[in-house]
Every structure is written in structure tokens, then in C-alpha cells.
Amino acid sequence: MRPPSWRRPRIVSLLGPAFVAGVAYLDPGNVASNMTAGARYGYLLVWVVVAANLVAWLVQYLSAKLGLVTGLSLPEIMGRRLTNVWGRRLYWLQAELVAMATDVAEVVGGAIALSLLFGIPRLLGGLLTGVVSMLVLAIQNHRGAKPFERTITAMMVIIAVGFTAGLFLAPPSPTATLAGLLPRFEGTDSVLLAASIIGATVMPHAIYAHSALTRDRFGRVKEGSARDHVLRATRWDVTIALTVAGSVNLGILLLAASTLEGKVIADTLEGAYHALRTVGAVVPTFFAVGLLASALASTSVGAYAGAEIMHGLLAFRIPLLLRRLITLIPALALLALNLAPTWALVLSQVVLSFGIPFALVPLVVVTSERSVLGSSVNRWYTTVAASVAAALLVILNVTLLVVLVRDMR
Question: In b/e form, how buried is each residue of 185-217, taking b as 16+ CB within 10 angstroms?
Fold first, then answer.
């Protein structure tokens, strides 16, 4: 019999952490990568979006499971295992750089959205994006996990509507969409975009954050029927959140493929905004509002992840305002120099793709250890699937590096 002190909550009441982590899969970097891929190559990289989302489901579930079973985040576990102080610092440095690359995409995307909607100068728009993200993050700090989850989920709804509204007026070709499921590339630039899509979909900071989110929401759930019930709810949570995120990402690529393919100006966010006027008068506005919600929500989650990375690996925290200002510097510098923002967004996702193995490989190793997860340890086939995914991602990143070095000669 269950202990009388424990009442089984409804599954719906346990949903939420995956929606916060899932917003990381809908940041402006995703928009730039998917929009650029659709505008340049049509339906060619549909298979990349689908495959990346399937991998993301597995990765985010493992991360969530780790947090609620151990009561620790992945950075905390790595902080304990990396006993060499310099090894721990170097690991922190790469994770921190990945988090800052994420912030570049999010802040620049917010600046572009504010410029498109209200004509606000980009540098000021970047500052406003950073300030609002702090206010959203303050909800988590002062009111707890659930209000923060509700705020981010509401933004996720706005993002989904904003980025998919155009599909109802310009539906993609079903035949071409199915053909896009066949894995193939067309030249080195399509490989670069594929890595960018994967970097924007399977995001290292989302892996670090999800284990912390479940820890904050549930604590350490002891073995037994309570844990089984929460794990079942977590599978639903991840499935729903990533189905939404994956559908929106695919929708962005399909919208670009059906309406913007071959248009020279359409592989920038500003160009896409103006080109979407051919679909309908309100579609560009929906797109810009979705982009703004994407930037505000994802940069808040990114700041949460960055703070957890520092705390878990270095056992050190700095004031939120100071940290927010430090991580804003690269994005604001890019905006001040007036560099090509959309391509910078795409390149930031490439940086993220190189950080994936450093988060994914430890996650697979730790969740396959019975001494850590007990009866919730990965099944052998789960470990095999995650290992294959990690290996393929590493191979793609090495291929990308070779392509980039060769093209620089």
C-alpha cells in the first residue's frame, strides 16, 4: 500500500518543466537557421529538423530524469566528478561560452523584432531584451517554479501562433515535404546549415537546464510508485513540449520553403519579414511578435541555465544583474558594430553544435549508471540509441570543421 501521506497528483499538474526547457528549441537562432534553410534550399533539410527533434526528445527526457531521480543538475554532478580543478574550470569555460553564444542569438533576435515592430534602434532593442528577460527570470527567483513555467508556457503559445500563422495562407507542398525527409545535402553550405539547425535544436544549455528545472520542481523523488508516476508525467511533459517545438520549427522551414525560396532578401530575418507581405498583410506582424516572444522567453531560460552552470561547476554565484550584463556584452557588441545579424545568429548555432558532445556524452554516461539512478537507470536500448545519436552529432561537427577549414583556404 502507498504511504497515506502521499497522494498521487494528476499528471496534468506535473507538467511544466519541459515547456520551459522546450522554449530553448524555439529561440531566434532556430528561426534564423530554419528560415535560411527554407529560403535557400526549399524542402531539402526537412529531414534534419525531424531527426534533430527526435534526438532532442530522448536527450531532454534523460536530463529531466536525472534531475528528479538524483535531486541534482547535470552541472552539479559534473562539478563533483571533475576532481581536477583545472579540468573543472575548462569544462565550465566551454559550457559558459556555449551559454553566451545562445544569448547572442536571443538578444540579437529580440533587437531585430523590436526594430521591425516599433522602429527601435537595435542596440537599444538589445538592452531592452536583456532587461525584460531579467524581469521574467525574477518570477522564478521570487515566486518559484510554477509561476515561471506558466509565464514561459504562455510565451510558447504566442511563439507557436506567430511562426505558423502564415502556413494557413500559404500551405506547403505535401509531396515536396515528404521528399524532404530523404537525407541528403547540396554543397558545403547546406552542411553548415544542417549543423546550425542541429545546434539550435539539440541545445547544450537546455540539457543543463532541464535537470535543474525538474530538481527545482520536484526535488529528489524517492524510488517507488511516486517516482514511477512522476517519470510517467515527465515523459508526457517532454513529448508534448517537443511536439510543439518541433512542429513550430518545421513550420518555419516549410513557410520559408513555400513562400521565400529563391528570394535573395529572404534569408535574413528582416528580408523574410518584408517578403512575407506577399502571403498576407498580418503575417509579417505575427512573425515579428513570435520572434519577440521567442527572444524574451529563451533568453530568460538561457540566463537560468548559465547561472546553474556556474553554480554547479564552480559552486559560485554572482549577482543576477551583473551576470546578465556580462552575458549581454557579446550580443551588444555585435549590434553596435552593425554586423550582419542573421548570419551571426546562424553561426552562433554552429558554436552551440560544438558544445553538444560536452553535455550529451556525460548525460548518457551518468544516466546509464545504476549506482546513480538505481532502478531508473537507462534500458540498454536507450543507452545505445543515445550513444548512436551522440556519435552522429560528433561526426557531423567534425565534418563541419573540416568543411569550414577547407573553405577558408
Answer: beeeebbbbbbbbbbbbbbbbbbbbbbbbbbbb
Determine the Cα–Cα distance for residues 311 and 314; give it in Å rounded to an integer. Answer: 6
Tell me how far apart the alpha carbons of residues 213 and 26 are, in angstroms, rounded to a whole number: 18
- CA 63 distance to own-chain centroid: 13
Q: Which of 152-161, 188-197, 205-214 has the lowest mean pLDDT?
A: 188-197
pLDDT digits (tens, 9 = 90+) for 368-391: 999 989 889 999 999 999 899 888
CB proximity list for 352: less than 8 A, separation 6 or greater: 29, 98, 101, 102, 199, 200, 203, 204
Scanning 42-118, the segments in alpha helix (DSSP H) are: 46-70, 74-81, 85-118
User: CA-to-CA distance for 213 and 64, rounded, in angstroms?
Assistant: 8
Check residue 262 and give left, alpha or beta (phi > 0: left; psi -120 to 50: alpha): left
Taking only the tens place, the pLDDT of each residue in 67-98 is 999 999 999 999 999 989 999 999 999 888 88
The Cα 189–Cα 314 span in angstroms is 38
The whole-angstrom separation of Cα 252 and Cα 43 is 11
Report residue 382 as a C-alpha cell.
536507450
